[in-house]
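Hey, can you fold this?
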Amino acid sequence: MKNATGIRDPAFSDNKDQPIHRWVPWIAGFSSRFVDKVIDAFGSSASCNRHPPCLLDPFCGVGTTLVQGMLRGWSTIGFEINPYAALASRIKVESSHINLDRLEDTIQALRTESREWGSSSFQPHSQPPEAFKSRIPFFSPQVEKQVLCLLDFIDRINDNHVRDIVRLAFGAVMVSFSNYSYEPSLGTRPAAGKPLVKNADVAAVVSSKIRQVVSDIKRLYDRLGDSGDNASHEIYTENFLSEAKNHLATRSVDLMITSPPYMNNYHYVRNTRPQLYWLSLIADGLATKDLEVNNFGKFWQTVRAGPPVEPTFVHKELFSLVQKLRTIRVHRGPYGGPGWANYVISYFNDCHAFLKVLHRLLKRGGVGVIVIGNSIIQGIEFKVDRLLADLGEQQGFFVVAANQIREKRVGASITRSSVRRGASNRAALYESAVVLKKK
C-alpha cells in the first residue's frame, strides 16, 4: 500500500548512535528521525503559536518523542508507568540543567574510590534487594560486591541530578556484567549459550557510560542555546488512561506521537525487573503486580484465567475474530484460545479508552500519530492498525492515514503460527502509523 504520509521506518535501533537517545537501550519504539518527520509533517501550524506548542507522548518509554520535542523548543508531556523508563525520560529532558563540572568530578571520585573495592577490608553497607529473585545469581560474587560498593557511592552523592545520572548509567549497563542477557527477552546467559560473568570492572563500565552522557550534554548546550527557555517538560510516572485528567486540561495538546505496547505480550515489567529492584524503584512483588495490572493492554498472564472479558465497544469484524479464537485449543482452557481471547479484548478495551482520552485532550485540528504493529495469535492475524483506525472513527476522529511504515518486524507477536516456524504464510509482521485528526 502506498504510504500517503511519507513517513517510514520507526526502528528504535537507529537511536543507539544518537546523542542522548543512546543513553539507555530499549527493546522497542521509533527513532528520533521518525519523530522529526512527524513534527515536520503535522506540527507546522502549532509551531506558529506565540507560546511553545504542546507535544504529548502517553506511553513515552525512555523519551524519544520528548527529547525531539525539547530540541525543537516544544513543551513536552510524557506518561510512563514503568519507573525505570520514566527515570530515563525525566533525566533526558532535564539534562540541560546538569552541572557538568560536578558530574566530571563524580566520575573521577568514582574511579578513585573503586580502586579499594577489591580489598577485603573494604566492605559495602548496601545489601542486595531482598525481594528480587532470579533463577541463578544475577551477579557473580565478585561483581555483586562492586555493585553494592557502587550503590554506597551513589547514596553519598548530594546533587540530585548527578546522583540520578549515575543511577541511570548503572541501570543502562548492569545487565552487561550480570549473568543474564537480552535475547531479546531477559534470560540467563547459559540458556543463550554464553558463559557466566565471573568478574568485571563495574566502575569502569559505569564511568564510561557517564562520560558518554557528559559528551552528549555538551553537544546539547551548543544546540539548544536559549531556544527552550519558555518550554516546560513534565514526566508523570502514572497510568495515562486514569490519570491524564488530573494533569492535562481539555483541548490542551497540539500534537501527540506515541507507540503503545503492542499486542505481542512482550513483558516490559519482567524485562526491567533488575533495574526496578536494584535501583530501589520498586520494593516488593506487590509493586510489580500493580505495574502488570496497570500496563496498557495488560498481559496474557494477568487476564487468561478470569471469566470472558467483555468489550466496551462495538466492532463486528474484531468480535468475529475473537469468537474464532475462543474455539481454538479449548481443552487448554486459559492456556488455549479462551485465555488469548481475554487478552485480545483487554487490549482493545484499553485502545478504546486511550482514544477517548486523546480526543478530549487534543485541540481542534490537533493530530495524534500512533505507531502500532499487527499481531498473529494462535494463527489468527489481527490488523491492529486498521482496528485502531476504526475505533478512532467511532470516537469522532478523522483518519488521515493508516499506512504501513515498516515491514518484516521481528518480535513475539506470533503464537503458534507458521510464520514463527519459518514456513510460508500470507500473514507477516509489520508496523503502521495511524494518523488521527480531531475535527
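Oh, and this one too while you're at it.
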Amino acid sequence: MFDGIRMTLMIGPAVPIPVSQEVLDAVTEVQVTTTDGKASGFQLKFTLSNKSPLHTIFLLSGGAQIPLIRVVIVVSIQGMTEVLMDGVMTDHRITPGTDPGHSVLTVTGEDLTRVMDYIDFSGFPFPAMPAEARVALMILKYAMFGLIPMVIPSIMLDVPIPVQQIPRQQGTDLCYIKTLADKVGYVFYLEPGPVPGTSVAYWGPQIKVGVPQPALNAGMDAHTNVESIQFGFDSEHKVMPLLHYQEPISKVSVIIPVPDVTPLSPPLGLIPPIPKRFPMIRETAKLTFIQATLIGLAKAAQSADAVTATGSLDVVRYGRVLKARKLVGVRGVGMAFDGLYYVKSVTHKIKRGEYKQDFKLARNGLLSTVPGVPA
C-alpha cells in the first residue's frame, strides 16, 4: 500500500484466494480489532462506482447462494509477514458516497469462532473423554478452515467412567468449549497465523509471561514511537475473592482468600492496590480443592488490572505490528507507570498511505518489577 508496508486481501468461499487488483484498488479502509477474552472482528470499506460489478459479487456473497465467505487480511512490514485476521463476512451495508457516481460498501465480519457457533450439537456423547480430549475433537471438525488445536491439559484431569457417566455436549461447539474452559479457569481464543489460511485454536490458562515486544516510548524526542498514551489507576477495581470449600470427609466448610498471582500470570507492578471487596465464590463448595482453586484464581485475575493505559501509535514509526495477548514495555512516562504491561486489545486502522494502531494495556499495580524493558 505504501513504502515498507504491503497488504494482501484474500476472499473466497471456504478457501480464500487473493483478490484482483480491481478489488484491492477499491479498498479505502481496513479495521481489525483483537481483544483479550472476545472474538476478533474486522471491517472493510470499498468505494465503488454505482455501475461496478463488485456490488453484485459482494451482495450475492451475503445471501444463501454462497453461505460462507472467508476473509484473510495479511500485512508485510519490512519483510515480516503478520496475519491480522482470518474470519468470515457477517454483514454488508451500502451508503451513498461523496459524489453521485459512487457509493461505499462496508463489509463486517468476525474470526472463525463465528463458524463454531452456527450448529447446535447438544446431546453429542463423549464417552471416557476428559475435557481436553473433548475440546481437541471439537476443534478438529474445523480442520478444513486451517484450525490448529493447541490444547493445554488441565492439572485437574478427570476421565469419566462410561458405566457411571457419559458427558454430553450442551449447545454449539463454541459455547461448550468456553463452558469447559470456565470450569477449570482456562480461556479459549483463535490466533490467526502463523501462515495465511491457518489459525491456532488455544485452550489453556491465560499466560502473561514471555518475551516482551519492543517498548512503547513517550516523551523521548527522536525515540518517541507513540502518538498518544494515557494512564489510569483504579484502586476500587481490585477485589479478593473468598473461596468456599467443603472438606469432603468431615464436611467442614473452609473460607480461603484467593490471590490474583500465578506462575503464568506474575505481578507486573510492585505496588498493587489494597482490595476493598471480598466476594464469596459459593459454587465451588462441592468441587475438589484443585477444581475450586483453579476457578478462584481465574475469577481473581479478572479484577487484577488496576493500572490501564490507552493510546495510539504509527506502525511505520514503531517498526512492527503491536500484538494483543502479549507483553510490551513502556518507557518515558515516569517511575510509577514505566515497565511491562499486558496488551489487552489492539485495533488496526489501515488506509492508503497510513497504518495506525489503537491499543489498551493493563497490569496489576504501580512501579515496574523489572529494571528495564527491551528497546
